[in-house]
Fold this protein.
Amino acid sequence: MYERFKKYEVTDVQSVEEFLLRYTKYDRHEGRGEEVVRNRIKLHQEEFDKLGYTFMSKHESTTGRIVSFYRDTEDDDKVQQPVILCNDYVALKADQELLQECLGSKSRIKPVNILITENDHKMLLEQKVVEISNFESYKQLPAN
């Protein structure tokens, strides 16, 4: 089944919730109330976590055809880490004060989630504050 729905894959969304919001007809999703939306997100997320993809029928889809959303397998070997981002520097959330000391208290700090390699993760844990350009691979994830 995994390969069967691959031809219907959409790649312009980053999460199951965004997939459902963008591709489900209003009267099949938001138009049915918050409880239905929460339940649909939960069910599709469980399917996505278990199978690596989720899909909806042409009857639910705004496109009038089947659409599917697949996990990005290029990031499977990466570590997701909540961090503090400031200018071109990253620190663990627990090290926010250290980052402010390094960059000055007037610097704007933004909490985000990132995907980094295991080696980059170890470097971040050791050095506490890392310039983004020092990472082998860095990907900022959508805010939760």
User: Anything to note?
Assistant: The helical segments are 16-23, 34-51, 96-103, 118-127. The chain is about 30% helix and 25% strand. Strands lie at 53-56, 67-70, 79-86, 89-92, 110-116, 129-131, 138-140.
